[in-house]
Design brief:
about 675 residues, 19 strands, alpha+beta, Nucleotidyltransferase, domain 5, 5 domains, eight-stranded mixed sheet, globular, GIY-YIG endonuclease
Amino acid sequence: MEHDTNSQDYIRLRATAKDAPLEPGVYIWRDVDGQIIYVGKARVLRHRLNSYFSGEKDVKTRTLLKRARSIETIIVGNEYEALLLENTLIKQHTPKYNINLKDGKSYPVVRVTNEDFPRVFRTRRIVEDGSRYYGPFPNVPAVDAMLELVEALFPLRKCRTMRKRVAPCMYFHIGRCAAPCCGKISKEEYATHVERVKQLLAGETESLVGDLGRQMAEAAAALRFERAAQLRNAIQAIRDLSATNSVVDFDPDSRDYIAWASEGVLTTFTVFSMRGGKMTGRELYRARSAASELESLESFLAAYYSADRLPPPRIYLAPVDFSGLEEAGAAGTAGAAAADPLAGIRLWFEKELGQTPALLRADERRHEAVLAMAHQNAREDLGKRLKERGAGPALEELAAILSLGSRPDRIEGFDIAQLDGKHTTASLVSFKDGLPDKKNYRHFNIRTVEGRIDDFGAMREAVSRRYGRLIADGGELPDLVLIDGGIGQVNAARGVLDALGLDLDVVGLAKRDEELWLPGATEPIRVSRNSEALKVLQFIRDETHRFATGRNQRLRSKDLALEGLESVEGVGPARAAVLLKEFGSLEAIAAAAAEDIAARCGLSASLSSAVRAAAATALADRAAEAARLSPAAPKRASSVRRTEYRSRRGSAPAASAADLAAEALADYGPDGDGDGEGK
């Protein structure tokens, strides 16, 4: 029954496994008729699915590979959710190759009875009598440990049926029951205990875990190790059972969760259906549309629901971009719709299907979790679609927008990073067919503008060094050069290319308004924010910025470390370098004992203590600088300037494009072409 590894079915299945998400989830095998023949769960879907195609295969695996024609994956939040969803799908579909592996049991839940003085206990049976249920919990030992903790912390009744008693039972005397049967606790006081238990079972455990942690530390300090171990186990049980569960709850109302992911004209919608408190499946729908997000959603809802598939009472939707509609409403053309952007689809449900489902945003954590999971599944499928299609259409659109002679299959992008004229660096990233070609990434330590803020001069040097080297080596030239900046940076690059005799197309992307600038232009080219061509350029621009800023920050960090150590009297550049080489970082120096610093670097005790203090101060300065440069900071005194040119009076004149081009062609130092990715 050996499967033909050269068959198209086997090759397709293996390719699906290789591209599976690196996330926890459930995978579904289907046969030639589309029937589910096996459901499995995985901590990492890609790793689990790849295991079916490697090594020796047992009879079950060989049979599965022979019968299967497709694999689907459903991403969930964690392994716990994967286990619950697997259990639900197996019971729903009874797949052929799961039958002998799974029993018919349900996972246990914790029940809080609907009584004046409720009881809390573990069960596998759901009784519709108003009781509250928490779970289900696949980890039975952890449930038992949690209930032991509840019993120790909260004096709730243990008897199945509570009868009036004159004298309390043994549990009252050992502090495990408050004896409501004897009237020794009021209904209100008892309800307070029950509410705390409900919070614990619902995952609101932060304060309790903190208290238990302190008790554990105190027990260990008092050498009461058995008690400390009990508390440790209780904390672990709480953490094990506090994992969020988005695939099973005890809300009986039917409801759908709809989220989507878009890129250009491609959109993937995901629908998760909850029926009877369980997730019964996930559906993916692929669409192509140039409409707005709201219009695309309305079209999908009208296509998905019909007389044969009526909507459930509640439909939870991911957040929708209403910006375009609000503009229309402000103009007076859609006043009523602006008040309720979904009024049109609500009316469609009522007129066409005779239904009035509630279209809702997530108002609870559990609903937010399911929508987030749906969005993640949609995003994963959209990534597959983009990979299958490639960047060809976007590059063809870009060629048309810029009036290029051919499609720009290879694009190289430049960015400049510096801080007040110090540590000026340039990054070069190279993309082939819309994908990063990291072996051709380069860094340039800019030498001609050190101490001055001159982005134009820095751009001239980077461009001249890059393409001077390619000319000298006979390397592959790009079809398009992308500059992160406006007309000034673009003209600077164009001047260098002209001096080198290169007829390469150049375009700038100005971040402020996402406008495109061509050399010598007086007006920018403005394209739709939904343009796939623009998204390709934005991706490349953002990658150049990441690459440039990372290098610049590393240089600043090293500079700060040396300056911090050299601030100590008796520590010069040589000794500071020895300290950094010996310990590797400021963090290690600050954490080391003064005696260790003295022994390893030959310093006196007093000097070692001063060095350690200076390292700690330098780390604090670094943290303050990082906060100042953070994008979340409301205002930055100085920042990594990339798109605007600012000159300082008294600066030395910048090298001309011709001078830089001649230098690039004539001479290369040891780092003439910069550092590649990862160096």
